[in-house]
Structure formats: C-alpha cells, structure tokens
Amino acid sequence: MHEMSLAMGVLQIVEDAARAQRFRRVRSVLLEIGELSMVEAEALRFCFDAVSRGTLAEGAALNVVEVAGQGLCFNCNMTVPLAALYDPCPACGGHPVQATGGTEMRVKELEVE
Amino acid sequence: MCTTCGCGTGETRVAGKAVSAPEDAQAVDAVRELPQLSGEGSGDGASGIAQGAHAVDAHQHPDSRLQVHVPTHSHGHGSEHAHALSALQESTTPSRMVQIERDILAKNDGYAAENRRRLEELGIFALNLVSSPGSGKTSLLCRTIEALKTQLPIVVIEGDQQTSRDAERIRATGVAAVQINTGKGCHLDAHMVGHALHDLAPADDSLLLIENVGNLVCPAAFDLGEAHKVVILSVTEGEDKPLKYPGMFHAASLMVLNKVDLLPYLSFDSALAIRYALQVNPALQVIPLSATTGEGFEQWLAWLRAGCAASQEKKAAMVASLRQRIAELEAQLAAVSGA
Fold first, then answer.
1. Which pLDDT tens digit goes with each residue over B228-244?
2. For residue range B70-109, what is the model confidence (pLDDT) as tens digits?
C-alpha cells in the first residue's frame, strides 16, 4: 500500500537528520518493518530508489529488518505468533487477538558520511 | 508527509490551488525530477485532463526552480553514474552510523495531532468517511446534510483524484465544501486536510464531514485528526470485504451498511457481513441504512447528534476550566500586587 508516500516519509526523515547531524551523503538506511505493517519491502525499495534520486540519499542501500508478528489473545490470554492481522488465535482459535509486535514501520539508523 | 503521486505535492490541489510542500523543498525538487514515475502509467487520457487542469492555475513545476536545482548536482543521467560515484567515495570517505528511531508516519501523525487540537478547541465533531468507490458516500452526505443543516453548522471536505464534481454536489445542498484533488495520490493526508480547514474556516460547534478518496486500503494508515473513521459498506459489494480489507474495518468506529433498500434484489447476507466486520473489530458499531429511501436514517442522525453534543461539551468544559484558571490567576495577582 502507498509505498510511495512511505518512501517520501523515509527521505524526509533522512533529510531532517542530515540538517540536525550535518552529514552530506547517506550510504545505507536501516528500516524496521513489521510483518503486520502491510508494507511490501520490495515496493518500498523501488519507490525509495526513485524518490531519492538527486538527493543526498541517491544510491543508498535500503536494508530492511523484518519484525515477526505477535499478538495477545483476549480469549486465552496467551501471547502468540501472528501471521496476519485479525487472524484467529493459533492456540485456541478465538478472537480477538490484539497485535503486540510486528506493526512497526521505523527508520532505525543511517550509515552516513 | 506529502502525497503518493510521482511529482510530489505539486499535484495536490485544495479548492483548485496547489498545496505547497510541508517543508523541505529539496525533497520535493528531487521528486519533481522523476520523469519515469510522473510520466509512465498515466500517459493516456487521464493525464491529458490533469495537464489541462494545471494549465489553468499555476502548476508547481516552475522552470526557475529546476534551473536552480539542476546545477547543484551533477548526476542527472542515470543511476549507474551515481553508483560509480558513490563507489569512488566509499573508498575515500569514512562513514559513521546515526541512530534515528523515527516512525515513518510520524510527520503525518504530527499534522493530524495539530488538526485534532484545532478541531477540539472549536468543538467540531469531525468524521473521516472511507469506503470503496461507489458505496454511496456522497449520496449519504447529501441526505445527511439535508436532514441536519437547519440544526447544525456543517462543512465538508471532499477528496478525489480528479474533478470537483463531489464538492459541487455538496454545495448544491447549501453548505460549504472544499475539494481536495490528490492527483495521483490514493488517500488524503493530514497536511492536505490542514490546508482545507484553513480555507473552510468552520464555525464553532460544526459537524465536519471529510469524504476520503474511494479506497479501502491506504486511507486506513493516514490519521487526519478526525474523531472517528466511518467505513461505508454497501450491500452491492461482497459480505467478506471486512475480511479482505481488515485494516480499514479495524480502524473505523462505525460501519454504515448502505443501500439496504436493494436487499430484496440481491443475495447479500447482512448478518454474515456484520459478523465478519465484528470479527475484525469487536468494538465496531453498525448502522444499516439507505441513503436513497432514508430507511435507518434516524439511528445515523442520532449517532451524529450525540457525537456533536459530546464535542461541544468537551469544548465547553475546556473553556470553563480556562476561565476558572484565569480567575484564579487574577485573584493571585490581586493578592500579590495588593500586598
């Protein structure tokens, strides 16, 4: 979904950081993308390549750390692995399972020069 | 955050005027230089219309900006050159790591928080109406406005990729409406809505109805500063839409099940659709209605009136507590200057 917006969001964060931390080029960007965040890492990479052209992040590698989905089942009160948002609980089959991990979309760190 | 369109914020228009970038002219310039993304995929009739619209108002691609921008970097012809350059630099320049830890949607969320604060201060009850295209959002709005316009001040923000047809339909009911054209963007964002609010200047204690772009995916992720998302599902769609597009049904507080007057002619199972929706979001409220016949409308209008009353009360309480604080400070001041 809307990976172009997200890529532009990443670029804005990078440019804000460049102003604050005074760097001129970015070699790589480390992102944390949750399994449940509905972001296609490949699509995001394609969009980031496009929006970063002509900026300080041109040619920078986009490295993605995937975070596994995890949820708390309100039915059996267990913390369970969650493959997709709003799935039934894999342990007891109940609903709802509140996602507790794997929904993040964050810029973690940058390698800069 | 800007839009998803290939040429950045330049194509977003609020009431026909281009919206400036939130900040960061550099990022926007970079995007504007993307011939592939702004050209491909729309090289048909649709882009012709877009060009026509740009010709009327000043489009945000002034040559001077590009000329200023082009000389500042030297690799405008392909990424191979850029890679060669960075490979060269890698061997000579030391690099360091910078910790960031920032949410990608943080910028939009910041604008949304600002909108929410403004709306709460004015006692405005704001709803973000989301659905697939063709579920009857605009018809629902028109009938709602006709029913409530003598009781409440109402303003409308209309989001569509192109045309101001929806805003014109709303204005025909006699209330103020601003059209946001997202260009190639697939959703409204909080920055655009902030601009539209500025243009609309809604009265205190209004009802603000924001009709998002018809899309069940992207608008779920973008907070606009509204009190609630209202998702509209029509009975001419599939019962399993809540399961197929769970993000939106999860983000909404209310589901309006529209076009129930057509149920006798369809095999749509309302109970099943509601069960699927509650599976995704157990707290979801549901109101079945028909924007054509008015069936079920009383419940919907009552829900809106209750929301408006709650927003107005909240504002009144805020004003009262500020007044009390002023009185306390004045008493304090009098005591100090009297002493």
1. 999 999 999 999 999 99
2. 333 444 444 444 444 444 454 567 889 988 888 988 889 9
Q: Please answer whether residues A105 and B105 qualify as being in contact, where contact means their C-beta atoms are separated by less than 8 angstroms.
A: yes
Which residues of B are less than 8 Å from A4 in CB distance? 4-6, 37
**Would the CB atoms of A111 and B97 count as touching at under 8 Å?**
yes
- Written as one string, the DSSP assignment of B192-204 is HHHHHHHHH-PPT
Give me the amino acid identity at B334. A
> CB of B230 within 8 A of CB of B127?
yes
Cis peptide bond upstream of B22, omega within 30 = no
CB count in 10 Å sphere of residue B251: 19
What domains are there in chain A, each with its CATH number? 3-112 (3.30.2320.80)
B182/B253 Cα distance (integer angstroms): 25
Closest chain A C-alpha to B234 CA, distance in angstroms = 22
Full-model pTM: 0.75
Per the CB < 8 A criterion, the answer to whether B10 and B181 are in contact is no
C-alpha to C-alpha distances, B258 to B11, B139, B157, B227, nearest whole angstrom: 32, 10, 21, 21
Locus of tokens 């709802």: A96
